[in-house]
Amino acid sequence: MTGVLITGGTGKTGSALAELLRRSGVPVRVASRIPAADAPDAVRFDWRDPATHPAALHGMDRVYLVPPVDTTDPMPLVEPFLAEADRLGVRQVVLLGSAIVLPGAASALELAARVRARPGWVVLRPSGFMQNFLAPHPLGERIRRRGEIRTAAGTGRVGWIDARDIAAVAAVLLTGPYGHPDDRRDYLLTGPKALNYQDAAQIITLHTGRPVRVVPVGFAEQADAYRASGMPDAFAAALAAVDVGIRTGRDAQVSTAVLDLTGRPPRTFAEFVQDHAPQWADVGTPED
Question: pTM to 2 decimals?
């Protein structure tokens, strides 16, 4: 094994994966748009600048692939990177996909299909991140500042998963033999239980002492809130549509993949809240 390139290396799953691999003595290269000057394993990488791709990939035989964020059309940006990975002989790619598919995001499905088609390349499809309940995500920021969750999801449930558990699965796949004994190319990753936003609010309140309420809203109001946080219009509308879609129960799936691959169960939402309790400290309730 020569090393693992981690795109999105300073993000939620990428940073946790880098730490796990370093602890195991695995050579890593952490790719980001603004690499830390004092980090010897950091490299500049920009999806919109293909000239940064060869240097990031050079000498790496495995890749943890986090597609560009805030877009429903990642394939045009990722395709040149995958072509370069093929040219340089990358033998394994673990793609961070999603169990929650954005409306109108056929490109994301195309990307997942492209990865599945290669021997030893794997797609991870995690459910909603527990880390979304923390700032600076708009959901977490509103909880921190106003003690409320505004949602169009009704009482629909999601199999929320801790990003650290996603990283643990990726670490297993990236440090084991190429491919997996069951020859699977796709893993649904969830927490141990599907929860709705009312459940989450109760758990945060119980374990932090910070009262959190749920405020029902419609699609338009949710999309406006995402736009106000700085998201592009199309991406904000897609996320709001996902929120509405949760009502149908389609995202209430629960899998055993984390346990099957890592040998330990995924963290519960209560454990996640206890680990991050200080981050929900009341900072006041400024006007909207």
Answer: 0.94
